[in-house]
Amino acid sequence: MTAFVVADPIVLQHADTTGAPCYAYAVAELRRILGRLGRVVTLETQVARIDGFSLCLVQRAGAPPLRTPPLDGMMPDGYILRVSADGVVLSSATEKGVLNAVYDLAERLGVLFLLPGLDGEWMPEGGVVPRMSAGEWRVNPRFKHRGVFWDPCGSPDYTVEEWLRFFAKLRFNAVSHDIKDLPVARELGIRLEVGGHGLASLLPRDLFAEKPELFRLFQPEDFGGKRNPDSNLCVTNPEAARIVQQHYLERLEATRGAYAVHAWADDLPAGGWCLCSSCRALEPSDQAMLAMRYMGETLARTGLPMRVPVIAYHDTMMPGNQIAPPREGFLLFAPRERCYGHRLDDPSCARNRFYLAALKAWTRTFAGIDDAHTFEYYFDQILFRGLHPFLPAIILGDMQTYAAHGIESHMSLQVGGPAISPEFNMLVFARGQWQADLTPAAFMADLGRAICHAASQPWVTYLTRRAEIYAAAMRMCGHNVDIYLDYRWLPETTDSFGREMAAVYADAATQLAEAAGDLEAALQPAWPERVRRLVRQETGRARFEAVELAVMAKQQQAMNGFGEFMTTRDPAVLEKAVAALEQAVLSLAAARDKALAAGLPPEAWYYGNINGWLTKEFSAKIARYRQWLAQA
User: How many CB atoms lie within 10 A of CB 101?
Assistant: First the structure.
């Protein structure tokens, strides 16, 4: 079979880039990457821009542009990659599609996009560029929009621009962050969303002294009728609605160019809504929806091409049955308290059965309104208490479920960042968005080869073990779906599932430390320095996570004892539970030391926002239950 060799020199033919910033960036990126592969690239403006955008690689200056394939059946940022003995053609209906094709071609030439920045962009080992067999690949994404709700949470690892450019390399086309990112987002072909929990800020809290009726009544009239300025608002008060609309208009004007302006209700597990005579018949989802309708009305009057996200989250996880969504809105499905040990549609998981039912109900509510989003949590280190659980089977399985239920924009929250080692979940999430038949085994095999082609098996073995360990340790299915919990706040329980998970966490800690040791033992002096450095980083992270899992084991053991004590009042049971939680506090200190030893910077958010939170909570629980022991 004929093949094209990316020889030296090579000619990159392109069209006029005037007025096409993302296309211009695609030209520059292909030239830059080929340069990093050791190729001298000559630019020629030869390609016509008629029905789309194309780039051609040929080996002779002045050669006529190669024939571009028809774009029938291609999604807006899908692309066609055609390789022949004469050269390579990258074609798409859009600028972004050509940029996506550039990064696909780079990967086929042996480039691995592992982390942000140039150091995270690995060129082929030894500078050997693979030959490209002739063929044509028509590549469409599984979801129209793919990307990240990004909150760096003070993470010091990379700059905002480095992250955004990395997201483009992963072929994401949607990011929620800050309106200041708009110029870079446009260059990268990324749709920008802004905002978050902002409903309360649309009704200034300093109005409470003068106009308390604008704020929520947190006790009905027959229970005292007290209002409070703490959360949300009285959504049926017309003056409150007017003020919300006024401030939302200001926000829209300040964020022109963004696709959506998020202004969700307060981030509360439950409550925060109004119980006045006009609001109390509206359940939380209906009160939130009414507020979103005010925003939708405001947006409609402006004529701006923007949208109003309606979030399904915490106590709005199930839709209401009275208030219809605004036509200017879209669904934002945020199943934070789901079980990440099972895919969303796993019938064996009672917790996920509830969340799948919620997705189906919200899909019915938004029937006829496009661009349903996910707000998944695969990269959220707050939810996962600083861990980076590797969940390839869950992520790929969820994609099938979300695609089947009408999700068009598949996005995940990222809080913090992989300061120690790569975020493997993000890599599988990115690739699965384009490859419907991708399996966890195939992903791990490909990643192992990309990391170290000459010795991929130790990596495949390690990644496989990591996935198995976390699939077991991330189960939440046996805990009551009505209580607030996540992987930080493990619950008091008398259920057998609590006893099972205490043992699972302990076993996971042992297994993950062993997996790290086995990967380290496989390290060979002949491996490239970047691979040996990655082994050190990854084993350091795994050992830190192993101690954190050991904390979880003692934490859940204590919670089981506290749950039993509430029923039995047996001081011996309570004494053991308190001792277990005291051991957890000591293990938290050890986890902090392991994180520092692994290279997590001292200013990283983990130390205060996870380790500090947990230490504070554990200490408070110990003090409270010691009071019970003193009375026994």
Answer: 28
11-25, 335-349, 599-613 — which is least confidently predicted?
599-613
Give the residue among 132, 134, 165, 131 at the shortest CA–CA distance from 148.
165
The answer to whether 66 and 36 have CB atoms below 8 angstroms apart is no
Query: Does residue 196 register a pLDDT over 90?
Result: yes
User: Would you list the domain boundaries of the chain?
Assistant: 3-138, 141-196+334-444, 199-310, 488-631
**489, two tokens:** 């706040």
Question: CA-CA distance, 528 to 125, in Å (whole number)?
Answer: 8
* CB atoms inside a 10 Å sphere around CB 569: 12
The closest of 314, 307, 151 to 231, measured between CA atoms, is: 314
What mean pLDDT, rounded, does the chain reach? 95
The residues pairing with 312 across neighbouring beta strands, listed in sequence order, are: 333
Query: pLDDT > 90: what percent of the chain?
Result: 87
Q: Please provide residue 399's backbone torsions phi and psi, each rounded to the nearest 5 degrees.
A: -60, -40
Other C-beta atoms within 10 Å of 533: how many?
Answer: 12
Structure tokens at 579: 């001792």
Q: And the tokens for 593?
A: 């030391």
Instruction: Tell me yes or no: is domain 3-138 CATH 3.30.379.
Output: yes
pTM of the model: 0.96
Mind giving me the DSSP string for 271-305?
A: -----STTTTTS-HHHHHHHHHHHHHHHHHHHT-S
**Helix (H) or strand (E) segment spanning residue 227:** strand 227-228
Q: Which amino acid is present at 338?
A: R
Please, what is the Cα angle at 236 between 305 and 197, to 5 degrees? 50
Q: Which of 534, 418, 357, 543 is nearest to 148 (CA)?
A: 418
Q: How far apart, in whole angstroms, are the C-alpha atoms of residue 272 and residue 266?
A: 7
Give Cα separations from 392 to 82, 401, 427, 438, 470 (angstroms): 30, 14, 9, 10, 10
Residue 622 to residue 553: CA distance in whole angstroms: 16
pLDDT digits (tens, 9 = 90+) for 104-160: 999 999 999 999 999 999 999 887 888 888 999 999 999 999 999 988 766 667 899
pLDDT digit string, tens, across residues 441-476: 999 999 999 999 889 999 999 999 999 999 999 999
